[in-house]
Design goal:
Layout: H1 17-27, E1 32-35, H2 59-69, E2 75-78
Parallel strand pairs: 1-2
């Protein structure tokens, strides 16, 4: 059995819905999406700048959720670095 690998995308902002649709069409969906967003502003250990989801990088959280919900099959696993 030959397996096809999907290239890593280093920046979620580079990922478009068209790219997702192409992969879903090519592979028939995904069973697992792994990723995450910068969590420094959400972390309890950050005593000074806890803006939560209103922080400068927080839109990445919403973008990641949108990307993962655009995938047809599977699981959604948020990974905190």
């Amino acid at each position: 059995m030959t397996k096809t690998l999907i290239n890593d995308i280093n920046d979620v902002w580079e990922l478009t819905i068209e790219m997702i649709e192409e992969c879903v069409t090519k592979f028939g969906g995904f069973y697992l999406v792994i990723g995450g967003s910068p969590c420094g502003k959400l972390d309890r250990r950050n005593r000074y700048h806890r803006n939560g989801l209103e922080g400068q990088h927080s839109p990445l959280f919403y973008h990641y959720a949108h990307v993962s919900s655009s995938v047809v099959a599977g699981e959604f696993l948020a990974k905190t670095p």
